[in-house]
Design a protein that fits this description.
Keywords: Flavoprotein, FMN, Monooxygenase, Oxidoreductase. With 292 residues, this protein is of the alpha/beta class. It has eleven helices and ten strands.
Length: 292
């Protein structure tokens, strides 16, 4: 089990540099950020672009992996996103992971004035978006004309530092999301905050993990070929209030099949995220859960 963190893009440039340096110094494997135009309680507060935040994070670290949890098609286009990702992968010397999800009916979905979509249609769009990105990131020039996106000789030279492309971490608890992860993903993402999680792994999540394994087998992949990333909530006492409790919870989720756990960096002015006293012991936590 690996330990990673999620740093929301709410800090000014100086504090952002400090937070990402700290994440590397504390021994986290990866540091992720949310990719939204704005988000919930921060809608009327500072909220910066995810990809530019990752660029700044990459500039002050050397070994820390960086990524989004998650990017959606709500306001991104595969052609422009592919160019951004290739640039980020170059700046970071091959340390970028792209989290992908269908998005929800939220500010991100409304900000460009697009008509609302049902969950089924959002999944339709995500599948096309992800397949287009895969083509863009693995070929020098791509053209396509789909239901949602069009490209005419889109150039993506020199391609990614990571070959054949940057890893995709795909979120989706339903059958179609799991099939997409099996088709194109290097990891599957679970947002624990959507479950009623107590001290034990929720039964519904255990069922999802079983279905994911079956989906991978049906696709001709070994179940262990797909990483499983657990993103815990901003306010998750079992993971954020006590070091020993976090280590114990990580053991439960490792036994269920997760390979990486992501805790939130503290956000002091709103009192959310991992308690600073726990976050500061990330190196110890990472060492103890590494054998799980």
């Amino acid at each position: 089990m690996r330990l990673s963190t999620c740093i929301l893009p709410v800090f000014d440039a100086a504090e952002t540099r400090t937070r990402w340096r700290e994440a590397e110094q504390l021994g986290f494997t990866s540091a992720y950020t949310y990719d939204h135009q704005s988000w919930r309680m921060f809608r009327d507060k500072p909220w910066y672009d995810a990809l530019l935040t990752l660029s700044l994070g990459a500039s002050v670290t050397t070994g820390l992996r960086l990524g989004t949890l998650v990017t959606t098609p709500n306001f991104r286009h595969p052609v422009t996103l592919a160019k951004d990702l290739i640039t980020l992968d170059a700046i970071s010397d091959g340390r970028i992971t792209l989290g992908l999800g269908a998005g929800t009916a939220s500010f991100d979905a409304d900000v460009l004035g697009d008509p609302p979509l049902t969950p089924r249609r959002r999944q339709d769009r995500l599948e096309e978006f992800t397949r287009d990105l895969d083509q863009l990131l693995t070929n020098d020039a791509v053209s396509f004309a789909g239901e949602w996106y069009t490209a005419v000789e889109a150039r993506t030279i020199p391609g990614c530092v990571q070959r054949p492309r940057i890893p995709f971490a795909i979120a989706g608890g339903g059958p179609r999301g799991m099939r997409l992860a099996a088709e194109l993903g290097q990891a599957w993402v679970c947002d624990l905050s959507i479950f009623d999680a107590g001290d034990d792994v929720p039964a519904e999540l255990l069922n999802q993990l079983e279905r994911l394994g079956n989906t991978l087998r049906d696709a001709g992949r070994a179940p262990e070929s797909l990483e499983r990333i657990l993103l815990v909530g901003l306010d998750a006492p079992a993971f954020s209030h006590d070091v020993d409790a976090l280590i114990g919870a990580a053991g439960e989720y490792a036994a269920a099949g997760f390979t990486e756990i992501v805790i939130h960096a503290p956000i002091h002015d709103v009192g959310l995220g991992t308690r600073p006293s726990v976050y500061a012991q990330a190196d110890r936590i990472a060492r103890e859960i590494a054998e799980l």
